[in-house]
Amino acid sequence: MVEAGMETSQSIDPCVSPSQAVHPPSPEYGAPPACDLVTVPARQGLEAVDILRRGACDAVGPVGPVLHDGGDTLGFLVPPGTAAAWDVPGSVCTETDGRGFALPAEPPVDGSDWLLPPGEAGLATDPAVLRAALGEAARLIEAADSCR
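The chain above was modelled as a monomer; its predicted structure follows.
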């Protein structure tokens, strides 16, 4: 919790609500919490973002920041610890091992760009909500491809 008059980091940490603003990393405060990253094929990821933003699946919720690698992959920021139980076929969840960081407004990977940047998106995407949206996206893609 931020004390009155204390400065906070200029970066945005989507895994922490604004009411839980975090001090910059320092020996006094430690590193801010980090997010795990779920990567999926871009087609499925874009469909899932659309589903989440429209509220078109049973488990709806805000979608957090989404990173596009400029190619065929999208990355969803999810709360730390998600990787330990992530089991969605066709996707990978990379754990952070508790290494905290606050995301800058610029994408952290060269050649990538924010599809939904921190500050414009919600907090990190809830893993259960993302799992439901990715499942719905896979079913929609399969149905569309079977019509060809």
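The radius of gyration is 16 Å.
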